[in-house]
Write a structure and sequence with these properties.
The chain folds into two domains: 325 residues, no CATH class; 286 residues, no CATH class. It contains 27 helices and no strands. It has 658 residues and is mainly alpha-helical.
Amino acid sequence: MGTDGPSTETPSAARVARSLILRRAPLAGWFVLLAVVLASYGSLSGTRRYAEARNPFPGAFVSAAAPVGYFVTSLLGAVCLGALLLVVMTSRPEPDGLLDAAAFRIHLVAERASLVWPPAAAAMVVIQAAHDVGVGPGDLLRSGALSDAIGVSETAGAWIVVAVLGVPIALTLRLNTRWLGHAVLLVPTVIAVVAPAVTGNAGQGPDHDYSTSAAIVFAIAVSALTGLKTATALTATTPTRAVQILQVFCGALAVGYGALLLYLLVPGVTLGSDFAHLGLAAGALLTAVWLSDCWGLFVRPLRASAYSVIAMLATVAAMAALAATAVQVAPRFLAHRFTSWDVFLGYQLPNPPTVANTLTSWRFDSLLGTAGLVLAAMYSAGYVILRRNGNSWPAGRLVAWLIGCAALVFTSSSGLRAYGSAMFSIHMAEHMTLNMFIPVLLVLGGPVTLALRVLPAAGDRQPPGPREWLTWLLHSRITSILSNPIIAFVLFVGSPYIVYFTPLFDTFVRYHWGHEFMAIHFLLVGYLFYWAIIGIDPGPRRLPYPGRIGLLFAVMPFHAFFGIALMTMASPVGATFYRSVDLPWLPSIIDDQHLGGGIAWSLTEVPIIIVIVALVSQWARQDRKVASRSDRHSDSDYADDELEAYNAMLRELSRMRR
């Protein structure tokens, strides 16, 4: 797994090199100009900004360094994410998985950005902590109070996450030049890109459940769009149609979710503030880039060489404006007195969770709720395409998938989530639904099989497309490891113990991003486990049916013990959070936890019954297929015996005539 790329010592390579130098010059100049503008803005507005927020002034250096550092570090993460996406989408890997020469040039962009990303994030830990507590970084380090400052600065903690994740990302990019390695790195890169966004203004105050979910999507979309534009321009890569579609999609998400964030964070009466002006400027730049991408994709192709540089400069400028907003308090919070519910929930819960309240207290989750709707629409579109092509698809799979998606929307957006964020018992019902009920339905839908039957194969001279990417992932080593029945079993059984019986739950339960992380984690772990048990989609070799039934029953005692442990504990988990929320109609948080333990114990039976029915049906269907093949083979053997006897009789008659 070396990093040496193919030799490019050719005249065409020399022309490409000159082109790259010409392309990198505008970016370098533009980058320096934006950094100077941000530093000037931070210095000139520093005292006023801190006074408006009623925060102590940390000094001119921190006031200028905070927006510049946020911009630089966020841009490095965006370039890393965009370059990884570009490698995954445009590479024509060799049979052994190594990147081709064109993709290797893009890989170098990701590698070089990743080398600077962790130290930049580490520097931001100190700068952000100094910014939030109002002390100069020198004084903070000399006094030995850095750890205390980080403890009260959520965003400084987020930069630690970026620095920690950035190290393995950089090492992997340094040592690995295979397609699969780049695809896998997308996961930690996305987490690192999202971390600072969810701990800033979006994660605070009233309606922060709405703004946090929106910030997650917005951060990914803006970073991916900026990174794709930058990597494309730096490497003189002509975007494929798939890349163009992704850019339009990311642009739409950035504009839509950015508008939602602006609405939530900037009341109409504060549109004259610096925060509003910077947000509107970033929105205008992103909208212009998105409309241009739409024009180039659907109307008339734009000149790739010129437009890629212009679009890159515009998206980078948008990130600079966003960095300036990230280091100041949103106008909505300047004149608002927070209640404990504003801080910990973002909304009011004046009444207990009756059936009517649970069904009507909707707060739509723009991340998981939207994901459920999109997944349902994509599956339905695939079903329609397949039927129009004259192919059949079991209606039961369609029904299972749609019910699973509807359950995901309900669980993430109804009163089940609203009350589940404040009560352990309702949270446990939400957890069990996400971990044991929804994955069963989604697995029975067979989405990968449907996608493989609908997606067209790439032509001989075309770059690999979604069908090829999906096939590579299915047959990859990482998929083989994660879907191994033993690994899936350990993840499925061990996750609740690790989350709820360690300090992790105390952290996750306090923040909306923690609830989103738990929901996604338990959903994916449940999907992996049930894929190994009742999976329809192709994948690694599975256990025989008796082994699958044994593995399924082996889960039950672990879940029973988990529920019993919650029911018998004398001290509540997440006690600090639940006491801070202090629901007036909830008499005892320990009694509520005991109820949650009972829910965890009892709700395992329903999905287990569904899985057993599905497993027995699959087993019986498999036996019928085997019996049918055996019957056909027996009939064939019988016919062969008759033919041989007839031929022997003819030979005997011929001999007798002689």
